[in-house]
Design goal:
Layout: E1 2-7, E2 18-21, E3 27-29, E4 35-37, E5 44-51, E6 58-64, E7 74-76, H1 90-97, E8 103-107, H2 108-112, H3 123-127, E9 133-134, E10 144-145, E11 153-157, E12 160-161, E13 180-186, E14 200-206, E15 215-220, E16 224-232, H4 244-252, E17 254-256, E18 259-262, E19 273-283, H5 285-292, E20 298-314, E21 317-333, E22 342-361, E23 364-382, E24 388-409, E25 412-431, E26 434-456, E27 460-479, E28 488-506, E29 509-519, E30 522-524, E31 538-540, E32 549-561, E33 565-581, E34 595-610, E35 616-630, E36 633-635, E37 643-655, E38 658-667, E39 671-672, E40 675-681, E41 696-701, E42 707-708, E43 712-725, E44 728-737, E45 745-752, E46 758-764, E47 769-777
């Protein structure tokens, strides 16, 4: 028996929905695309039940014939939970059936209720509240996960690799939250289908688009305005004839709105269907502020576009097209001289993916994805003379990937596939007649396989896996005078074994273990110590250097209390080798000057989470110890936060139908590089003994990241009121960042005081910041 489970209101797939045959031990859960398979069901008539929190239970009578696989596609309608009715959440279904560690899945509704900065819902700001994830400042959305740097995270949007997920110098991410269906963070020990990164995977899935009705929404905050439209794709005028089998099924009739009879996979005539979604966002705050304060000669904006289209031309096949465009543009010029200084800095992401999902047979489900991704940066300065500075960097890759899931037996499922990529990177700098350009081409090839074996029914699960990667690479350096060096070619072979284990000693308790090796063929050249992040320069690891690799060892336990409260505790150790680090004190490091490094990180993550109820959210605590070594120098990198805690709470409909939410963060100080002393340097003219100049103070730098900032803490709160209208709904929201105006330190600097001596000053982070906004849904 197989089929899909979808939301009856908009056609969105319901991932990890519990599906079972009433009165038997047969059951399963849908995958992330809403597909389920229940094998080896004897012939007969059964009642199939689909149960999901927040939806009415769906029951359908299915007739299974001899040597046949019955098809039962189910649609669930939203509804409240009846008394004594037991329903399984998506997290609970994953707990019972998946072998995974360090995995947290968030849905759209969980992203929406968290208090916002500037009124903008930001996916990465939410991820920073999860255990094991560190944020280095209020102005950075970079993800430092269990001792890994941001370039060690694989970020995917429907198969598109996103290389620079930042806006406004790191304040926001390019993902429009209303267009996101769910996001899964794999903080370590991820399966063999993922590769090319050392630390973690962030897999973002966009909504399918409403296949039932044309709907949309729009919102405006102090920073930006955004809108979204989704709806069905019109069916062809000719939808085909009703088959004899379909007529028979119709004669048997619908038993109720929630019960129907299905004889087999041909009982219901197929009708082509599809849906689309388009979302966009653009800032206007910089334009307003610059104009209000009379600032001329400076302009900035960013925009995001996301789109998706699905079409199912024939039964059991669905094609999906996803697109992403995000860009930041910073202009500055000389307002007093039209022929003077003009400069533009732009950076952004482009991406397109085409996905084919196919049920080849009831026991073989697969998808083929082809994706194109491009990250670019351009900086051009014209000084009003023939002299022009041009800097550019880009990384473009084309991916073809196939993943198959084979339900080989009742207790054995295998995931396997292959991945072929063609990628090019380029970095250039030119000034007048001088400059250089470095270009590289590489072909990452990979085969992967995972097997989930239920060794003891409902108790012991094993998941061995293997990813075998081969990186072929060619690198060329070129000067402005067209002097080209001989290409530097090479290839690397990287076996990456993975292993997972899950043991359930009781119905609500699980013990997990994961081991694995991971490699990474790309690095960034930007300083990891930079306070603000504008963009990253990506290049493949030079062929003369070994591939960076990491070994993960993770062990943990999960305990459920009731149907919606789960407590998880994990300990981990990660060993890094062949790392390439930037040089201390340099904003940008040339590829040939990267330093060889190694390191490790270990720690523990605790999370208490409640997904439903009058109060829901989570509490997270992380203990982490991270160390890096370069030659004889060992140090704690600037993202080594020893203790970090987050409290996220949501109170739906507390008073007068107002939703109230709050989040509080507490973390020990982060390392920074500071000065251990200073001394005056005087200038003296021997020819004029009476001439002295005031001293220039010289500072003595201490060891790398040897000091720590004070403790960080911040409370954000928000309230939302929604009014239902005949045509839709309208919501007004108030968010307050840093409610009690905590004086958190961003950085220190030195200046000369009134007494002529150096005085250390501090720059703070976001002060108390209230924001109001409105959102309309139709």
């Amino acid at each position: 028996m197989n089929g899909f489970v979808r939301d009856a209101s908009d056609g969105e797939p319901l991932a990890y929905c519990n599906v079972y045959i009433d009165g038997t031990e047969y059951g399963s859960a849908t995958n992330d695309k809403g597909y389920f398979y229940i094998g080896h069901v004897p012939p007969g008539e059964y009642e199939v039940v689909a149960s999901y929190v927040g939806y009415k239970t769906q029951r359908r009578v299915v007739v299974v014939g001899p040597n046949q696989t019955a098809n039962a596609n189910l649609e669930l309608s939203a509804g409240s939970i009846e008394l004594k009715e037991v329903k399984v959440t998506a997290d609970r279904a994953r707990f019972e059936r998946e072998v995974e560690v360090s995995a947290v899945r968030l849905e759209t509704k969980q992203l929406q209720f968290i208090p916002k900065v500037g009124g903008e819902v930001d996916l990465f700001r939410t991820i920073q509240l999860l255990p094991g994830v560190i944020s280095t400042s209020d102005f950075s959305n970079r993800l430092y996960i269990r001792g890994g740097s941001p370039d060690q995270n694989l970020i995917l949007l429907d198969g598109i690799t996103v290389y620079n997920p930042s806006h406004l110098f790191g304040l926001f991410s390019p993902f429009i939250a209303d267009a996101v269906s769910d996001v899964t963070l794999l903080a370590g020990g991820f399966p063999a289908k993922y590769g090319s990164r050392l630390s973690s995977v962030l897999d973002v899935t966009t909504k399918e688009g409403n296949s039932k009705h044309l709907t949309g929404n729009g919102s405006a905050s102090l920073i930006a305005a955004q809108g979204l439209v989704e709806g069905p794709i019109p069916r062809p005028k000719s939808e085909g004839r009703r088959t004899k089998d379909e007529s028979i099924g119709k004669d048997e009739g619908q038993r109720t709105d929630e019960s129907a009879t299905v004889a087999d996979s041909t009982a219901v005539g197929f009708k082509p269907s599809g849906s689309f979604l388009v979302a966009g966002r653009r800032t206007y705050l910089p334009d307003v502020l610059l104009g209000a304060f009379g600032v001329d000669g400076l302009g900035y904006y960013f925009y995001d576009l996301m789109g998706k289209a699905n079409y199912e031309p024939w039964k059991d096949s669905r094609f999906t097209l996803t697109g992403l465009a995000a860009e930041d543009v910073l202009d500055f010029w000389d307002p007093e001289n039209a022929d003077g200084l003009k400069a533009r800095l732009s950076w952004g992401n482009r991406g397109v993916s085409v996905r084919w999902n196919r049920v080849f047979t009831p026991i073989l489900y697969g998808e083929v994805v082809t994706a194109w991704s491009s990250f670019f940066t351009n900086f051009k300065v014209n000084f009003g003379t023939p002299d022009t500075v041009e800097m550019a960097a880009d990384l473009t890759d084309c991916t073809l990937k196939a993943d198959l899931t084979w339900y080989a037996a009742d207790r054995l499922t295998s995931d396997f596939g292959c991945e072929v990529r063609y990628a090019t990177s380029r970095m250039s700098f030119f000034f007048d007649t001088t400059g250089f350009e470095r270009a590289a081409t590489f072909w990452p090839l990979a085969l992967h396989a995972d097997g989930k074996w239920e060794l003891v029914a409902g108790r012991l699960f094993l998941k061995p896996g293997l990813r075998v990667s081969c990186y072929v690479q060619s690198q060329t350096d070129t000067g402005r005078a067209d002097t080209t060096a001989e290409p530097n070619k090479g290839w690397r072979f990287a076996p990456e074994p993975r292993f997972g284990l899950k043991y359930l000693p009781g119905k609500n308790t699980a013990l997990n273990l994961a081991l694995g090796r991971f490699t990474q063929p790309l690095v960034t050249l930007n300083s990891t110590d930079a306070v603000f992040s504008i963009y990253d320069v990506w290049l493949p690891v030079p062929v003369s250097r070994a591939l960076p690799d990491a070994y993960h060892c993770i062990a943990g336990a999960e305990q459920w209390f009731g149907r919606d409260i789960v407590v998880s505790l994990e300990g981990y150790y990660k060993n890094y080798d062949n790392l390439l680090e930037t040089r201390y004190g340099q904003f940008f490091t040339q590829p040939d000057s990267l330093l060889d490094a190694w390191g490790f990180s270990y720690g523990a993550d605790l999370m208490i989470r409640r997904t439903e109820g009058w109060v829901n959210g989570w509490i997270s605590y992380s203990y982490m110890w991270t160390r890096r070594s370069i030659g004889d120098e060992a140090y704690h990198p600037h993202y080594d936060r020893r203790h970090n805690a987050n409290l996220v709470l949501n109170f739906p409909k507390v008073y007068w139908g107002v939703d109230v939410a709050a989040k509080w963060t507490l973390g020990t100080g982060l390392p920074y590089s500071g000065s251990i002393g200073y001394y005056p340097m005087y200038q003296y003219r021997p020819v004029d003994p009476n001439w002295w100049r005031r001293p220039d103070w010289e500072f003595i730098n201490g060891p790398r990241d040897a000091f720590r900032y004070p403790v960080y803490h911040r409370l954000d709160a928000g309230a939302t009121k929604t009014w239902q209208k005949p045509w839709g709904e309208i919501s007004a929201f108030l968010d307050i960042a840093n409610l009690y105006n905590a004086q958190n330190v961003l950085l220190y600097y030195w200046e000369i005081g009134k007494d002529g001596l150096p005085v250390r000053r501090s720059v703070g982070m976001i002060p108390i910041l209230p924001t109001v906004g409105v959102k309309v849904r139709f």
